[in-house]
């Protein structure tokens, strides 16, 4: 181990390598239940250092796991087989904002919120909008193809990545794309890297497409007697030809929990609420907001339109609290991240919401349902009493039932948080005819299997 430490220090400097148990522990987990332990943590500052570390790892046959903010929910950046953790957070420069070409060049450690703060004065933004915006990094977003609340209209991270600089498993540095807004030249290696969770290469720089900020936004809050009615309304909104910039659901448990977490939040008593945002030019926004209100009125018990930007901001801040607030359902219970990032076809939403509710009753486990219902992405937040020796088994059974129902209706076990270790066991079930192709790609690009091993069922 001492020899490894000296070799790594020769690449990045003594101050950027750690093998102390206390520091290694901090890199042994993310926000999921997956655990591991690294042999060393390295904090590189440029792509050449990353490449040198990867080459050394290849010579020694050691795993290399790239890590951003550690806010992942599937064990994707956890060193389950040991090895070297590359902490990419020091590579956090916004290299260039090119407004003429509608693009921005960044390093992977740039925090999402800080990127949009930098783009705003120029009249642009990076549309993917994760709930963890204040902490998650662009590298992590790309590794998992994250998205968030505005993916209904604007799509996911992969829709905004034009070009990548990537360190491959042999230590070579390659560019994958083009600085043009579209290209039909060669294999789409950029898209291949997005969502690969660091199993095919390590991203060290990215050219991202940015989008003009909308002139106006309007937020509609619609209350419903239950989640199934809210799900049916989403289908009606989309069928009416309205593509909202965001469409979020909070069930009654989520509403109650957020209000308990922050008593100043003004959310109604309801079986479920939808937060629907439309954006664009002022005249178009007013027309679309009116249409959304009319559609919602068919099934909603109440409808409210935010009258000011401040009121809209408070509603979105309330939505962002959900993940943290779930721990307040019962102080004796702890949030567990299983069965929590499903995606289903739009028409399956009402049935899926009803199925989750029935599982909550059958197993007597509180399940807080919320998420990006406008694109079929639901988060099912479960909590358990960690002193109950059977609790985790019951939760895993519920998660298994959820995953299998999702796959049966043509859905996915991960819509935005990634597969990692936590959901790896379902990859064969979801991709029965294509897993062998994924494994062939993995073996071709990483024949030693050193890049983030043990993830994605590869």
From TrEMBL:
<dbReference type="InterPro" id="IPR004113">
    <property type="entry name" value="FAD-bd_oxidored_4_C"/>
</dbReference>
<dbReference type="InterPro" id="IPR016166">
    <property type="entry name" value="FAD-bd_PCMH"/>
</dbReference>
<dbReference type="InterPro" id="IPR016169">
    <property type="entry name" value="FAD-bd_PCMH_sub2"/>
</dbReference>
<keyword id="KW-0560">Oxidoreductase</keyword>
<protein>
    <submittedName>
        <fullName>FAD-binding protein</fullName>
    </submittedName>
</protein>
<keyword id="KW-0285">Flavoprotein</keyword>
<dbReference type="Pfam" id="PF02913">
    <property type="entry name" value="FAD-oxidase_C"/>
</dbReference>
<dbReference type="InterPro" id="IPR036318">
    <property type="entry name" value="FAD-bd_PCMH-like_sf"/>
</dbReference>
<dbReference type="Pfam" id="PF01565">
    <property type="entry name" value="FAD_binding_4"/>
</dbReference>
<feature type="domain" description="FAD-binding PCMH-type">
    <location>
        <begin position="34"/>
        <end position="213"/>
    </location>
</feature>
<dbReference type="GO" id="GO:0016491">
    <property type="term" value="F:oxidoreductase activity"/>
</dbReference>
<comment type="similarity">
    <text>Belongs to the FAD-binding oxidoreductase/transferase type 4 family.</text>
</comment>
<dbReference type="InterPro" id="IPR016164">
    <property type="entry name" value="FAD-linked_Oxase-like_C"/>
</dbReference>
<keyword id="KW-0274">FAD</keyword>
<dbReference type="InterPro" id="IPR051914">
    <property type="entry name" value="FAD-linked_OxidoTrans_Type4"/>
</dbReference>
<dbReference type="InterPro" id="IPR006094">
    <property type="entry name" value="Oxid_FAD_bind_N"/>
</dbReference>
<dbReference type="InterPro" id="IPR016171">
    <property type="entry name" value="Vanillyl_alc_oxidase_C-sub2"/>
</dbReference>
<dbReference type="GO" id="GO:0071949">
    <property type="term" value="F:FAD binding"/>
</dbReference>
